[in-house]
Amino acid sequence: MRRADFARVAITALATVITLGAAPASARPAEPTVAWAACADQADVQCGSVTVPIDWSRPGGATLDIALARRPAGDPTARIGTLVINPGGPGGSGVAQVKGGIADHLPAEVRRRFDLVGFDPRGVADSSQMKCLPSGLTAAHYLPTTSAQFDQLRAGNKAASESCHEVSGPLAGFLDNLSVVRDIDAIRAAVGDRKLTFYGISYGSMMGQQYAQMFPGRVRALVLDSNMDHSRATTWDFLRSETVGAQQAFDRFVEWCATNDECALHGQDVRKVVAGLHTRAEAGELGETDPLTLLDEIQSMFAGPYWPELADRLTELTAMKPTQTAEPTRTGKPTQAGKAQAGKAQAGKAAEEAEPIEDIGGIFCSDWRLPVRDVAEVKALRTRLARVAPDMKLNTQAWVSVLGCVGHTAEVRNPQAPLKWTGVPPVLLLNSRYDAATPHEWARNVARQTGATLLTYEGAGHGVYSLGSPCTREATERYLISVRTPRPGSTCPAI
Fold first, then answer.
1. Which is nearest to 458 in space by CA: 422, 483, 495, 428?
2. Which residues does UniProt assign to the signal peptide (predicted)?
3. Per the CB 3.0–4.6 Å rule, which of 54, 160, 272, 472 could disulfide with 135?
C-alpha cells in the first residue's frame, strides 16, 4: 500500500477465488483486443483500452474500458513479450507511470525485450474514475475521542460511500482486487501473451499475489515489490504490523541524524524534538498541523526515504511560534491525512459537482474487513499501538485506511485470507528491511505462505526497485529475462 505520495474467513475468500476462477468456458466473453494509437497527450507512447465486465460473474452485463499505455520493445526481433506494470496505491495510475518515463528507470535489456504496458485499475483515473460526494470530514475526525465524534465519522463515511453508488453507478460495488485480477488476465490475453509477466508495487503486489492464486498456469514471471500481506486477519494485527514498520523506519532516521551532519537536527535529541512537536500539535500550537497530520508528514517522508527533507521540516515546525499557521509539507507528495481532508471538503454539493476520490474508499474497503466498533475500541487501539511505537504512536496510512471504512456500505468482496499457491513458477519478491508502508514482516509472511523467493534490500524506503540499488536491479533484470530467482534468503546492501 503505497502513499499516493501512502487501510473472513479464509475458507470464504478461497471459495470466492475458486468460484471466480472456474467459470465455464461458455460463460466467458470473447478474447479482447487492443487498438493501439499514439496517445493524444504524448505521441511517443501508445494508448488503448480493453473492455471488461463490471461484474465478472455476469460477462454479458454492463462493461467498462480499462485504460492502457504502451512503450513497445526496443528490439522487436528479441521481444519476449509484455511487461504489465501497476504502481499500487491503491488508486495509482499505470498509464501515467508509463507516460511518465518509467522506461528510463528500467534496465536497457528489459526495455529492449519487453513491451511496457501500464493500466489504470477499474475506478481509477482513465478507467472510469470513481466520483463521490464529499463527506465533510477532515483529518481531525480520524482521531475521535467521544462517542459523538465516532458517530460523526461513521455517518460521514456512510454518506460518502452511498454517494459513490449514486454518482458513479454499479462500478462502485466492484472495485475489489479479485475483479482487478480478472481485468489483468484480460489485458494479458488482449496483448497476445500466453502467460503473464508482471511488475507490481505495493498494492500492485496484491494484484500479482492473487493473480498467481487464481491463474497459476498463466504466470510467466511476477516481480512483486514492497509486499502487501492480505492474510492479516484482525484489525489489531493489521495496525500493529504497520505501526511497528513506521517505528522501525523512524528509528533508522534517528540513527542517520546521529551520524550524518547533513541532518538539520544533527547533534540534537530527535526523539525529544518529535515528542515536543506532538505535544504542541495536541495543544493546537502548530496551526493546521494537528497530531495526525504531523505524524503523517513524518511518515510520508519515509518512502524515499526523504531524510534531509524530513529533518528540515521538523526544524521548521520547531521554530514556529504558537500563533503561526503551518505550511504544507515540501515533498510535493500529498500525505494520507491531507488527502482525506482535501478529498472530503464541504458536504452538500450536487452530484454533478462531485470530485474524484482515490484509494482509501471503495477499493481498500472492498478488500479488507477490519472492523472498529466504537470509540472505546479506538482508544484501546491507540493505547496499545503507542506501546509498540512510542515515537510514531500509530501508522497514519493504516489508521486512516481502517477508520475510513467505518460505516462504509460497499460489500467486502475480497476479505483477507492466507495465500495458497499451487503450480506457480518461480516468483521474485522485493522488500526493504525498513519500510513503513509495507513492512518486511509482511513480505516474510508472503514468502512463507507461497514459497516465493524474497530478496531483501537492507535499507529504508518503499518501492525497492526505484531506490537505485545495483544489486536489486541486476537481480530483477535477470529474473524478468530468464525467470531465475536469487538464492532464498538473499540480501542486497543499503546504498
1. 495
2. 1-27
3. 160
Q: Which three cell numbers stand for residue 349?
A: 454539493
216-254 as b/e, with b when 16 or more CB fall inside 10 Å?
eebbbbbbbbbbbbbbbbebeebbbbbbbbbbbbbbbbb
Phi/psi for 265 (5° steps) reads: -105, 15
pLDDT of residue 354: 52
| DSSP letter string, 385-428 | HHHH-TTT-S-HHHHHHHHHTTT--S---S-------SS----E
47 phi/psi in degrees, rounded to 5: -115, 155
At 94, the amino acid letter reads: G
Q: Which of 210, 234, 209 is nearest to 223 (CA)?
A: 209
- pLDDT by residue (tens digit) across 380-417? 999 999 999 999 999 999 999 999 999 999 899 999 99
Whether 203 contacts 228, CB under 8 Å = yes
With cell 472530503, the residue in question is 344
| Strand runs labelled E in 373-437 | 428-434
pLDDT, tens digit (0-9, with 9 covering 90-100), for 183-193: 999 999 999 99
Asked whether the CA dihedral 3, 138, 388, 371 is positive or negative, the reply is negative
Cell of 456: 531483501
3-state secondary structure of 355: strand
Closest CA to 142 of 295, 366, 308: 295
pTM of the model as a whole: 0.88
Strands 81-86 and 114-119, how do they pair? parallel
Q: What residues of the chain score a pLDDT lower than 50?
A: 1-27, 326-351, 359
CA distance 115 to 72: 4
For residue 125, the SS3 value is coil
- Helices 291-300, 396-404: axis angle to 10 degrees equals 120
Contact (Cβ atoms closer than 8 angstroms) between residue 225 and residue 201:
yes
Report the candidate in 407, 333, 367, 402 with the shortest Cα–Cα distance to residue 143.
Answer: 402
Asked if 226 contacts 467 with a C-beta cutoff of 8 angstroms, the reply is: no
Give the dihedral sign, CA 1/233/428/435: positive
Distance CA 225, CA 238 (A): 19
The span from the CA of 428 to the CA of 430, in Å, is 7
For residue 368, the one-letter residue type is W
